Amino acid sequence: MGKEQLYGENPIAQRKTDLYKKEYVHSFVRKWDELIDWDARASSEGDFFINLMKERGVRQVLDVSTGTGFHSIRLLKAGFDVTSADGSPEMLAQAFENGRKAGFIMQTIHADWRWLSRDIHNKYDAVICLGNSLTHLFSEQDRRKALAEFYAALRHDGVLILDQRNYDGILDNGFTSKHVYYYCGDNVSAEPEYVDEGLARFRYRFPDKSEYHLNMYPLRKDYVRKLMSQVGFQQVKTYGDFQETHKVEDPDFYVHVAEKLYKNEERTNKSTILNNYSPTVETARNYYNSTDADRFYATIWGGEDIHIGLYENNTDTIYDASRRTVQTMASMILGLDPKTRVLDIGSGYGGSARYLIKHFGCHVGCLNLSEIQNLRNRELNQRDGMSLAINVVDGNFEDIPAPDNSFDVVWSQDAILHSGNRKKVLEEVHRVLTKGGQFIFTDPMQNESCPEDALTPILDRIHLDSLGSIKYYKHILLGLGFKEVKIVDHSEQLSNHYGRVLQEVLANHTSLIRVCSDEYIERMKTGLQHWVDGGKSGNLTWGILHFQKT
User: Fold this and answer.
1) pLDDT at 302
2) Alpha helix (H) ranges present in 82-183?
3) Mean pLDDT score of the chain
C-alpha cells in the first residue's frame, strides 16, 4: 500500500465503500495510535463494553473492526476469547504488533464485512463493530449486507454492539465535538472538512503537521436503528457517550446494543429488560424514539410533563396546566408517603415521578418504551439529584417487568391508548399491585356515542383501530377485581390542550424548524387539529380514572 492518500481532483466525489482500502495507507496507520490515546480512551470508556458483555454471559467475541487492536486487546485482558477481523491488512498488522507487545498472540482475520461468512466460520456470543466503522459503507445495500453477516455470525442469543458518531448533531447543528470520549490525543485534531447528507470528510492533523483524510457516510441514528431491526435484530437499545445518563442533545457518539433473540427472563426490577413488543406498541416506540418527536415534546409540550393538562384560564401555560394534572392526580391518591411504592407506566420524561418524590418521598419506578425519552428522564433525574431515587426501565406495559404484588400505586398518563391489547395492560396492572393498591390513570378515549369512522383521521395517524372508553375501562377493571374510587370527566380539557399546543406550534414555527423537520411540523399541525375537532365534536373524552384492587 502506498504512503500517500490519493483522492483525485475532486475528493468529495469519492463516495464508494471500497475507498477505505486506499485511505488506510501505511503512514496513516502508524500514526493512528497517536490519534487514539489508549490510556485516555480506556479511562473515558471505563468498563462499559466489558460489563455489557459480562451481563450477557458472553465468552467468544468477534471484533469486526479491529483497527490497531484497542478493543480486542482490552477484551483479551478482561478474559474474553477474541477473534479480530478488519478489512485493512495494514491495520491488522499494527494490531498484531500491539497485541504482541501486550503479551497476546491475536487471532486475526482479513475479512470484508459484506462476505464475512466466507472468512469467518465460527459462531460468536457477541459481534462488536466500534470506532465509527460502519460509516465506511456508502451504499444501503452494503450496510444491509454487512449487518446481515453480523447477524449470521452470532449464536441464537448473541448481541451486536455497534457505535457511530452523532452525525445528526453534525448535520443539523454543526460540528461541536471536543472528542471527550473517543479521540483523546491532546495534540491531534479530527474535524470535518466537508459535510453533506451523503458525505462526512474528516481531516486528521498530527503534531508533525502531517494531514490525512477519511471519507465517511454520515449515518443518522434512527436510520441505523431501523436497519438493525429490519435485518432481524429484535431489540435495539441506544446509549450516548457510553452512559445511560448523558447530555441528551449532543453526545459525541451513540452506541447501539442489538439483541439477536429475545430472552425469556424472569420478571425483575432491573433497569434493563428485554421485551417483545406488539406491532402497535412497536409503532409507538419507533415514533417516540425519533429525533423529531423527542425535540418537539421537549420544546413545546411542557418539557417534563408530556400529557394533557388541566387549564383554568386562557393564560395558563402548557407546563402549568400539565403540572396541574399531576398535582390533581396525586391529591386523589390515598395515603401517599415515603413508604409508598409507585410504578409510572408510559412515564415519558418522568415529570410525575420527580413530583411524587419531591412532595411525598415515594419510591418510584418509571417504565417506558422509548429509550430516547428514558435517556432524557435519567438526565433530568440527575439534574435534580434524584438518579438514585428513580428506577428508569426500558420496557413494555403489556408485559411489566416486575414481580407480582410489588407496587402500592400504578400511575399512567395518556399512554394506554398506544397498546394493541389494553386488556392485557390492565391485567398486568392488577398483577403487580398489592391488595388494596391503587390504579390512577388518564387516557384519550372515544365517546360511547361516537359515530363509526368519525375518528378515522386520528386513528390512522397513530396506527390504531380504536380507542378505549370510560365504559370499556370500567368494565374490564371491575371484572379483574378492582373497585371504582372516582372517575372525573374532563373531556373539555382535551380540545383545550391540543388547541393550546397547536397555538404554540403556529406561534413558534420559526424556532421549531431549527430543531424539527418541516415535514414533521406540518404533520403535527394536521394531527393536532384532528384532536381539537374530535374533542369539540364530543366524539372524544378524557378524564382521571381512579380504581383500587380489592
Assistant:
1) 61
2) 89-101, 116-119, 140-153, 167-173
3) 86
Which amino acid, 430?
A: H
Determine contact, residues 388/416, Cβ cutoff 8 Å. no
Question: Is 279-549 in the same CATH topology as 11-166+220-259?
Answer: yes
Q: What is the DSSP letter of 244?
A: S
Which three three-digit cell numbers place residue 425? 395492560
pLDDT at 258 over 70: yes
Distance CA 517, CA 520 (A): 5
363 contacts 341 by C-beta, under 8 angstroms: yes
CATH domain 279-549 topology: Rossmann fold (3.40.50)
Q: Where are the alpha helices (DSSP H) in 178-220?
A: none
Task: Give percent above pLDDT 70 in the chain.
Answer: 89
Q: Which residues of 512-524 are buried (b: 16+ CB within 10 A; e: fewer)?
A: beebbbeebbeeb
Is the whole-model pTM more than 0.70? Answer: no
Cell numbers found for residue 73? 486487546
User: In sequence order, what are the residues at sequence separation of 6 or more whose Cβ sits closer than 8 angstroms to the Cβ of residue 499?
Assistant: 528, 532
**Average of pLDDT values for 408-413?**
97
- pLDDT higher than 90, residue 437: yes
Confidence of residue 265 (pLDDT cuts 50, 70, 90): very low
Grid cell locating 487 = 372517575
Q: Which residues contact 354 (CB under 8 A, 6 or more apart)?
A: 304, 380, 381, 384, 386, 390
Bridge partners, residue 238, by sequence: 256
Beta strand segments in 90-210, E: 107-110, 124-129, 154-165, 189-196, 199-205
d(CA 310, CA 320): 8
CA neighbours closer than 13 Å in the CB half-sphere of residue 189: 12
Dist CA 46 CA 66 (whole Å): 19
d(CA 118, CA 122): 11
Instruction: Identify the CATH homologous superfamily for domain 11-166+220-259.
Output: Vaccinia Virus protein VP39 (3.40.50.150)
DSSP character at residue 468: -
Pairing of strands 154-165, 445-446: unpaired
211-228 pLDDT tens trace: 888 899 999 988 899 888
Note the pLDDT tens digit of each residue in 23-55. Answer: 888 888 877 776 677 887 787 788 889 999 998
Place of cell 380504581: 547
What residues does each domain of the chain span? 11-166+220-259, 279-549
Strands 253-259 and 235-240: what pairing?
antiparallel
Residue identified by cell 503479551 is 103
Dihedral, CA atoms, 485, 490, 494, 495, nearest 10 degrees?
A: 170
Neighbours of 504 (CB within 10 A): 17
pLDDT in tens, 471-495: 999 999 999 999 999 999 999 999 9
Nearest to 212 by CA among 195, 189, 194: 189
Residue 217: helix, strand or coil by DSSP?
Answer: coil
Q: Which range is least confidently modeled, 58-67, 127-136, 290-299?
A: 290-299
The residues pairing with 365 across neighbouring beta strands, listed in sequence order, are 343, 391
Find how far residue 109's CA is from the centre of its chain.
33
